[in-house]
Every structure is written in structure tokens, then in C-alpha cells.
Amino acid sequence: MAQPIRLHRTSSSLKASCHQCSLSNLCLPLAVEENELDRLEDIVQQGRIFNRGEHIFDQSTPFRACFAVRSGSVKTSIITESGEEQITGFFMPGELVGLDSMSHETYACTARALERTSICEFPVDKLEELTGKMPELQHHMYHLMSQEIQNGHQLAMLLSKNTAEERIAALLLSLSSRFERRRMSGTHFSLPMARSDIANFLGLAVETVSRVFTRFQNQGLIKARGRDLELLDVDALQLVARDSTRQD
Amino acid sequence: MAQPIRLHRTSSSLKASCHQCSLSNLCLPLAVEENELDRLEDIVQQGRIFNRGEHIFDQSTPFRACFAVRSGSVKTSIITESGEEQITGFFMPGELVGLDSMSHETYACTARALERTSICEFPVDKLEELTGKMPELQHHMYHLMSQEIQNGHQLAMLLSKNTAEERIAALLLSLSSRFERRRMSGTHFSLPMARSDIANFLGLAVETVSRVFTRFQNQGLIKARGRDLELLDVDALQLVARDSTRQD
DNA sequence: CGCAGACTTGACCGCGCTCAATGCGAGTGG
DNA sequence: CCACTCGCATTGAGCGCGGTCAAGTCTGCG
Would you state the pLDDT for residue B90? Predict the structure, then answer.
């Protein structure tokens, strides 16, 4: 259901909720047997709330934990020496943030809430200890990290070969399918990020993003008013996104 | 030393060589205690040779193992539905290939030798079993995979924000530092890949790569004849590459 | 030697960036 | 309630980087 997750249970137990979490089929518990879920719950700090713009962790500060998005959304970005921001990803409910930092003592990027967001925290030392004991959980971690590597490759591909229209169509479709996975509408949703975030992420100028949005709108592919977005013709969007390959 | 690794030892033991391998400080054995190295050696198939262009594994075939480059070099690429190739990475000695495939039953990309190349093979089932027993090795795997995620982000950044000159300068410097890590010359080496590979990887046209090479040469930054490359002014190259690929 | 593939060089042009102005909604204070 | 501001979004004009197309040159290999 599209019901928001209840964050503060009235029960006396603050942490007994991986069992009930509607995201348990997306998040870490996926790979875990019912009777092992308790051990995962033991190490998780659940449901901490961040408001829009608040930092979940900061680049170059000591790496302590990975974070799962329960509700809301998160963006991660790298700040270059020159002070420029490069957004490296958007994270939706059920997705794990911080995997790119497991190679250092410090976080490789900064994570910020794009809206009011609920976050579960997995301390990395305890997580590693646990994955050592639970082969399925370890396998799932490898799975998630490898998926993240592939996402990076997909993004690199998008950035290196595709036009502005193709990039934006691809992003909209990606968001759409991720909303659907959460059993929310995949055709009518609110963009959690600003146009400038989209531009930054896709390697475009804000003006270009704006232009493409209006072009899509004129073509009847989408209907956008501010952050409110409706996908009117998903098939046509997919055609645009995959059209990076049309010369025979 | 810049000595090539001896591939076929005259000793009767074919596999007793993680101990002697000059890359053991880069590859998986890094995290392993001396007395645990034997257990890693037990699962490794060492020193298989591939000639230029030969496939180490193919996209969409069953995922069986990760591979470490001992000598030579490897490129990985994704073939899109339309048959286009997108190169996702170049791998030098000591680097692990195939980490992006640990999320699927099949390889996510194709890996090919760029030159005569020696490869060690780590069957993934045994590797996972081993990392479950050896926390340091597990930690090292997380480290390597997270590093790979970061490389992806760096590449995406390079592709989305930087000019042709900046991208090429960054690639040359990356290769340089990776050669140096192998204790080979970082200023005079042979490019293992064709111009078209560089172009594909960096999201440029071959012609652009060629033009930038000659421009750099005219500016006295490099000296290139075919694949033979000399970096004449590393500082200037770093200035050109600017805020692109930084790994500290 | 000759051929094929790799590399270089030149001419042209279009996508998307830059600069600049305007539109628009939300929050604030008089 | 309007006026003002501030951040975000849209729209327009101009141009430069890098892609495309087309020759031409170099290189390795049979």
C-alpha cells in the first residue's frame, strides 16, 4: 500500500519493526530468514527523521554506518576542491545509502534529505560482524554493492552517449519504476528534487532541463507543474530513452 | 621492480604463488595473514594466459568467478541491445575484474584482454565461503567493491562536467599513477588500448581524442607516437585535469 | 610488398552552454 | 491586503565545443 510507514510505534519496543516494515522485501532483510531477522534488528537504529536539506552524513567525516531510506528521499553528492557539487545519486525508500564509503575511514560523499525523510541506520562494524555469520546476508550485501557498481556504469553510459532528451526520459522512467516498486503510482508523482539537482546529476544546464520538460509537455509525453509530474505516454518516453541507437 | 611476473614456475607446484606474487599488496591477499594465505591459494586458479582480444568472460553467460589481472591489461564493456559497445573500465595488474557481476546469475559485461595477459581466477562460491570465515578478507572485498562504486562516480563526474581535454588528461594521469603503483614508469609507458577505446570510454569521438593528443603534444605536455606515450609535464596535465579524478 | 585497420587532419554544423531577462509562488513585514 | 524579496523555473539570443563526414597518412602483418 502507499500508506506512509508509521514511525513511532506506540508499543514499548522502539526497534521491533523490520518484521512489519513494508520495505523488508527491498532492504537488507530480504535475504534473511524470519528467525534471523531479530539479529539484524538488534543492530539497526530505526526511523530517525531528517527534514529537507538536513545532512545524514558528511563527506570526509568518520564512516560509521550505512543508511536505508524508509520514507522520503535522499541525494548524495561529492564536493570537489573547487567547491562544485556533483550529485552522485538519488535514493528512494528501500534503497541503501553509503555503500560507496566502505572503502575508507571517511564518507566519500555527503547525503542530504530531499524532503522529510525517515532513515534506518546500520553501524558498519556490527553489520560486517553479522554478514560474517550470515552467508545470505553477506551475499545480499555483495548483491547490493555490485548493483550499485552497475548503476554507475549505466549512468556513465547515459552521460557519455545520450542527448539531453534521452537522459531526462531515462531519469523519469527510472524514478517511475522505483515509485512503482514501492507500490505507489508510477505515472503521477512529485519530483523530490529541484530542476538544478536533475541538471547537476545528468550533466546538463538547468535551462536545458527546463526546455526539455516543456518540449515533452508540448509533445504530450508528460504534464509538469512545478514538481508535480504526470507521465502521460510512458511508451513514447521509453522510445525516447532507448533511441540512443538508431543508425543502421 | 618492473620485472614481468614469471608465469610458469619450474617448480612442480602450479598454484603456490600468491606468496611470491609481486602484486600481493594490491590484490586480495592484501588483507590476509601470512598463515591464511594458503587457504586463499587453495581456491585460486592462477596464471591463465589470454592473448590480445580473447574473451575472459562474456556478458549474459553464467557468473562463476572474479578475476585478478597479474600482467597485461583488460577492458570490460557492455553491449547494448542495438549492438553498440560501451567500455566500462580498463583494468591493470593487481586489479579485480567482475565485481559488477556479483548481483546476478550472469556476467553484467564482457571482459577482453587488451594484450597478452595473465589472469588469476577466484570462483565466487568458494570466495564467498572464504570471506564468511575470514573477516579481513570480507572487509577487503567490501573495500574493493566500494572503491569500484567510487570509480564509477568519478567517471560519471568526468563525463558530465569536463571537457575533452580534461577527460583525456585525467585518464592519462590515472594510467600513470596505476603504472607507478606497479613500480613501473609513470611517465613513459605504452597505452594498452586503441584510440577508439579511449574515445568510447570517455564518451568522445575518435577524432576528438586524436586532436587532443596532438594539441597536448604541441603544448609540450606529452610525446605520443602511436601507443607509445611519454608524459613530459605531469604538473601541467594535472592542471588541465583540474577537479576531475582525485583519489586520496 | 600491398592491403586493412588504426590514426590524423580538415571543413562544416548542430546540440547544449552561457548570459540575460522575465515569470511565478511562498514567506515576510508594513 | 499589497509590496517586496528571494529562490526556483521558464524562455530567448548567440556561440563554441565537439560530433559527423570525408580525405589522407601511418603502421603492422601476411
Answer: 96
Three-class SS state of B228: strand
Find the Å distance, CA of residue A207 to C1' of nucleotide C21: 13
Nearest to residue B227, comparing CAs of B147, B115, B146, B119?
A: B115
Q: What is chain A's alpha carbon radius of gyration, rounded to the nearest angstrom?
A: 19
Please, what is the Cα angle at A158 between A157 and A160, to 5 degrees?
65
D20: residue with closest CA to C1': B205
Name the residue of chain B whose CA is nearest to A140's CA. Answer: B103
Please give the biggest Cα pair distance in chain A.
65
Q: Which domains does chain A have, with CATH numbers?
A: 11-157 (2.60.120.10), 163-242 (1.10.10.10)
Strand C contact nucleotides, protein CB < 7 Å: 6-11, 15-20, 25
With CA atoms as reference, report the closest residue to B21 among B67, B65, B66, B71.
Answer: B71
**Using an 8 Å Cβ cutoff, are B19 and B37 in contact?**
yes
Q: For residue B109, which phi and psi values (nearest 5 degrees)?
A: -155, 175
Kindly tell me if the per-residue pLDDT of A66 is higher than 90: yes
Rounded to an integer, what distance in angstroms lies between the CA atom of residue A124 and that of residue A107?
Answer: 12
* DSSP string over A46-60: EEEEE-TT-EEE-TT
A146–B103 C-beta distance less than 8 A? yes
Q: Are A73 and A91 in contact (CB under 8 A)?
A: yes
Task: Supply the pTM of this predicted model.
Answer: 0.88
As given in the structure block, the three cell numbers for residue A106 are 571517511
For B185-241, what is each residue's pLDDT tens digit? Answer: 889 999 999 999 999 999 999 999 999 999 999 999 999 999 999 999 999 999 999
- Strands of the sheet with A188-190, listed across from one edge: A188-190, A228-231, A222-225
Nucleotides of D under 7 A from a protein CB: 8-13, 17-22, 26-28
Give contacts of A 3-62 with B, CB under 8 A.
none
Q: How far is the CA of B155 from the C1' of D19 (A)?
A: 21
User: What distance in Å separates the CA atoms of residue A186 and residue B29, rounded to the nearest whole number?
Assistant: 46
CB contact under 8 A, B152 and A147: no
Sign of CA dihedral B5, B6, B8, B13: negative
* CA gap B105, B61 in Å, rounded: 8
Answer left, alpha or beta for residue A94, where phi above 0 means left and psi between -120 and 50 means alpha. left
**How many distinct helices (H) and strands (E) make up chain B?**
7, 11
What is the rounded distance in angstroms from the CA atom of residue B118 to the CA atom of residue B9?
13
Instruction: Report residue A50 CA to chain centroid gap.
Output: 15
